[in-house]
Write a structure and sequence with these properties.
about 325 residues, alpha/beta, Rossmann fold, 12 helices, globular
Length: about 325
């Protein structure tokens, strides 16, 4: 990452209290960027708060659904670069309550894009955090950027819509946008225990059976949070290029595996292979198999993952060991 590029740059991060957002803010601050974050709910367990990075950023309280707040942030803080990570990110929550997910993920995205359009004389780059879920179910894998977006279940649809909105604002109004489509992001600071990596680590640390909500054969792409942050920042650094502006990029370590394999790997890394699995096979509203080709990101952005899956999982396990050692659970 280019320190000179980021030094003093005025950056807005939506979703700054989320797992990825917290690590993005940390990296931006380490490069001397000037950061504003949108905070809907204060969460003292968020890495943004636990690391005390919250004290080093400007905080605006509000929700993505409130256009005037977003427009004020862009205008009054003279924002030049936007990272839009804010979203309702839990697939199960979207299945149970689609309206809230659509409001946050769809309305929130077009509100932010509209604020960037209105203040296009200031905003020079907008990074939209989409997802492999935007592709929906496809006949052929891995997903490539040439595929159409085919979301069907509520969370997928919300990501497909947000993705299309970003493309529309670029092609119609020349908003400088690039779209990141990542696989399942994991890493320290993810306290959504329904997700398989933090949920499994927590269960194993407590000596309990890790839960697999599917039958264990569902296939996913996993990408370490630090590689995701590097991907977002690399996109922003390259957005002046015609090869990047208005484009979408997949990010993946291109090593898909099924959920039983993932949990078994965690058991081995934590030396807990004696603990039995709790395979429930009651998952709803999820695609069976998803994984991505990152060829375009490697070729155009010169991006490469810096962590293998085992390296990322080891660092993630270490984070949770320290987390529980501090007795904050």
């Amino acid at each position: 990452m280019n320190r000179e590029f980021w030094k003093g740059r005025r950056v807005f991060v939506s979703g700054g209290t989320g797992m990825v957002g917290s690590w993005l803010v940390k990296h931006l601050l380490s490069l001397d960027a000037w950061v504003v974050v949108l905070v809907r709910d204060e969460d003292p367990q968020s890495e943004l708060y636990r690391s005390h990075d919250i004290r080093r950023v400007s905080v605006v309280n509000g929700a993505l659904e409130e256009y005037l707040i977003l427009e004020r942030v862009i205008n009054e803080y003279d924002i030049e670069t936007v990272f839009h990570l804010g979203a309702q990110t839990i697939v199960g929550a979207a299945y149970r309550s689609p309206l809230q997910t659509f409001e946050a993920n769809i309305r929130g995205t077009y509100n932010l894009l509209e604020a960037c359009r209105v203040h296009g004389d200031r905003v020079r780059r907008v990074i939209i955090a989409s997802s492999d879920k935007a592709y929906g179910e496809q006949v052929a894998l891995p997903y490539t950027e040439a595929l159409s977006l085919n979301g069907r279940y509520p969370y997928e649809v919300s990501k497909s819509c947000a993705d299309y909105l970003a493309q529309s604002y670029h092609h119609t109004y020349q908003v400088p946008v690039a779209i990141a489509r990542c696989g399942n992001v994991y890493g320290g600071g993810d306290l959504n225990w329904s997700r398989i990596v933090p949920g499994t680590i927590r269960a194993l640390l407590r000596g309990k059976s890790p839960v697999i909500r599917s039958d264990g054969t569902y296939v996913r792409d996993l990408i370490f949070v630090k590689d995701t942050v590097r991907a977002y920042m690399r996109m922003a650094e390259c957005l002046g290029s015609e090869q990047v502006n208005g484009e979408a990029f997949n990010f993946s370590n291109e090593s898909p595996l099924n959920m039983r394999e993932l949990v078994t790997m965690l058991q081995e890394l934590m030396q807990c292979t004696h603990i039995e699995l709790d395979i429930r096979n009651d998952v709803k509203g999820e695609i069976h198999s998803q994984h991505l080709s990152a060829e375009k990101a490697k070729r155009v952005l010169a991006w490469e993952p810096g962590f293998t899956l085992k390296e990322g999982l080891r660092e993630t396990i270490d984070w949770y060991r320290k987390y529980y050692a501090e007795d904050v659970s």
